[in-house]
Each structure stands twice: as C-alpha cells, then as structure tokens.
Amino acid sequence: MDPAGGRAFSERYAALEVLFLEEGLSAPWSLCPTTTDPEQAAGWLADCTMVGIEGLVFRPLAGRYVPGGRGWAKYKARRTTEAIVGAVTGSLRAPITALLGRYDESGRLRYTG
C-alpha cells in the first residue's frame, strides 16, 4: 500500500516540496505550482493556452488519495478563434479532417491547423 495514501493532499504536496529541495530535483522533473488564491488561479488560466497548458486541476486540500478513483476536478481552458476551412480530406459530405487557415497582416491565407 502507498504510505502516502491516507494523507491529505496538502500533506502529500508538502512532502513533495521537501523531496524536491533535499534531492535538488530539476528538469526533467517538475513540481506543478499550487495555490488557494482565486486571483492567482485566474491569472494562470489567462496564460495557460499561451504556454501550452490545457487547464487547471482542483483538489480539496484535505482530500485523500483514492486508488483507482478520482478526488479532483479539471477545468480545461479553451481559446477560440475564427478560421477558414481551406480543404478537407475525405468528401465534402463526410469530411475526415479539415485544413484551417487564417489571413495574415498582408491578406494572405496561411495554414493554421
């Protein structure tokens, strides 16, 4: 059995912080930041799509680890934009993928995804 299994998230996270400090862990290891400040979390959400992070995970500080279960919720950030469908694979009636484009500053259609 996992010795940390009965401990609250806040205790498990604190133990990870100590481990990172004692062992001098750095890249490729990373300890995700945590906060209870809603304004800081909102700032992270505003920036997360810019840096390739898909969202935030919310855990109760007193939450215990549940083997095979989920004691947390995830908020996925989404950034939307308008694009033009430039082409499709498959047929127009049953497309498989769409090639999307946007106009650049000079008015040229550029592939975006």
Short description:
By secondary structure, this protein is α+β, with helices and mostly antiparallel strands. Helices cover 23% and strands 24% of the residues.
Write the layout of secondary structure elements.
Elements: H1 9-23, H2 38-48, E1 55-58, E2 73-76, E3 84-90, E4 95-103, E5 109-111
Antiparallel strand pairs: 1-2, 3-4, 4-5
Structure commentary:
With 113 residues, this protein is of the alpha+beta class. It contains two helices and five strands. It has helices at residues 9-23, 38-48, and strands spanning 55-58, 73-76, 84-90, 95-103, 109-111. The strands form two sheets. A three-stranded antiparallel β-sheet has the order 3-4-5, with no helix packed on it. It has a two-stranded antiparallel sheet with strand order 1-2. Strand 4 (95-103) and strand 5 form a beta hairpin. The longest helix is centred in the N-terminal third of the chain and has 15 residues, at 9-23. The relative contact order is 0.14.
Describe the structure using short key phrases:
single chain; 113 residues; alpha+beta; three-stranded antiparallel sheet; 24% strand
Element string (H = helix, E = strand): HHEEEEE
The total of helices stands at 2
Low-confidence stretches: none
Number of strands: 5
Spatial separation of the terminal alpha carbons? 45 Å
Q: Could you give the order of strands across the largest sheet?
A: 3-4-5
Describe the largest sheet: 3 strands, antiparallel
